[in-house]
Amino acid sequence: MTSTDDRRPRSQTLALAGTVFASVVVAAAAGAGTPLLSLYQRTWGFPLWQLTLAFAIYAVALLTTLLIAGSLSDHLGRRPILIGALILMVLASTLFLIDDQIGWVIAARAIQGMATGAATSTFTAAIIELASARHKPVMTVVTSAAPVGGLALGALSTGAASDLLTDPTRVVFGMLIVFFLIGIIAVSVARETRAPLAGAIRSLRPRLVAPAAARSWFISVAPLVASGWMFSGLFLGLAPTFDRSEFAIESGTLNGLIVALQPASAALVGLVFSRVRPRLAAMTGSVLMLAGAAVTLAGLASGSLVATAVGAVVGGAGQGAGFGSSLRILAPLSNGTDRAGMFSAVYLIAYASYGIPVLAAGALSGLSDLSTVVVIYCAVVAVLAAWALISIYRIDRRGNQSTTRSKGISS
C-alpha cells in the first residue's frame, strides 16, 4: 500500500531539495569570505582590527536581524522572507564583485549578515515543515548541518580558488549569484507552510522566544550551542591570522583546508549522530567540545599544526553532535506559531558566540600577543562545554527519575 509520504508530488520533493541547497549556499557565501579576508589584508595592507571587523560585522548584522525579524516568517509566511533574503545575498555578492577596498567588503559582509539573519531560522522552520512526517527527524539534523557544512564548503573552495585563479573573488561570487538565483526559483516553487498571521509589526519588537514547554531544555543546551559556535568562530575568524603568524602558512588552499576542517567535521558528525538519542548526543557533544578545546590549545601552544588540526576535527565533532541534538530536543517542544521564533533564539546564541568573541579577540590582540588571546578563548570554550555537560546530565537524570516514579505508581 502506498503511503501518503510516498505520494508527495515530485515537484515538492525537488523544491525541498532546492530549499536545502539554498540554505547551504547562504552559509557558503559567509565561509567564502574568510580566506579572502586574509588575501585582502596582504594585498591592501589594512590593520588586523579591520580584518576582524570585516569578519564580525557579519555576525553583528545577523544578530540584529535575528533579534528584530527572527519571528517575522511566523506571521508573513516562509517564502516571502526566504526570497527577500536570497535577493539580499545576490546584492552582497555583487558588492564583492566590485570590491577594491575594505569598505566595500565590510558593506557586503553586513548585507550578508542581514540576509542570513532573516533566512537562518526561516530555513530551519520551512525545511522541517516541508519534510514528510517520516523524514522530519532527519531533516531537523540536516538543518543543523547545513550552516556549518556551507561554511566549510565556502572556505575550502575559496581557499583553493585563491591559489588556482588570478581573480578568485569574481569567480566564486559570480557562481554564488547563479546559485542564489536557483535557490529563489526553488523557494518560489515550494508550497507555503505557514499561513499569514496577524501581529507582524508587533513581532519586530526585539525579544527571545522560548515556549514554556521548551524553557528548561533551552537553558540547558544554550551553553552547548555557545561553546560549539564560539569554537567555530576561532577557526573561521582567527585561523587565517594564526596560520600565518604561528605556522607560516601562505598557501590559500592549505589555509582554506585548516579553516574548513572544523565546520566540515561539525556537519558530517552532526549527520552521523542523527540516529543517536538526542540527550546522549548532547552530552557526547559536550565531552568532545572539551577535548577539542584542550587539544587545539596544546597544538597552538606547542606550535604543532597536526595537533591543532586534530583539535579542530574533535571540537567540530562536538559542535555537530551538540548543535544537531539541541535542535532535535527543542523542535518537538514548539509549534507552528512560535517555531521560527524559537529557532531564532537558538541561532541568536549561536551567532553571538560565533562573532562577538572574535571581535573581542581582535581588539585584545593589539594589547597582547595572539597566542595568549587564543589560550583565553579556548578556556572559555571549555568552561561553556563543561557547564552544558553538567546541566544536560542533571535535567536528563531528573527526567529519568520522573519516568521511573511514574512507572512505579502505575504498577
Overall description:
The chain is mainly α and 411 residues long. 81% of the residues lie in helices and 0% in strands. The chain has a single domain, classed as Growth Hormone, Chain: A. It contains 13 helices and no strands. Helix 2 runs parallel beside helix 5, helix 2 runs antiparallel to helix 12 (339-364) and helix 8 (215-247) runs antiparallel to helix 11 (305-330). The longest helix has 41 residues, at 370-410. It is globular and about 55 Å long.
Key terms:
Growth Hormone, Chain: A; 81% helix; mainly alpha; disordered C terminus; 13 helices; 411 residues; disordered N terminus
Summarize the structure.
The protein contains 13 helices and no strands. With about 400 residues, it is an all-alpha fold.
Poorly predicted ranges: 1-6, 402-411
The percentage helix is over 70%
Q: Enumerate how many helices there are, as a single number.
A: 13
Structural class of the helices, strands and pairings? Answer: mainly alpha
The name of the CATH architecture is: Up-down Bundle
Largest sheet: none
CATH homologous superfamily title: MFS general substrate transporter like domains
Count of β-strands:
0
Q: Secondary-structure element order, as H and E?
A: HHHHHHHHHHHHH
Main location: membrane
Keywords: Cell membrane, Membrane, Transmembrane, Transmembrane helix, Transport
Organism: Herbiconiux gentiana
Transmembrane segments: 47-69, 81-98, 110-131, 138-159, 171-191, 212-232, 252-273, 280-300, 306-330, 342-364, 370-393
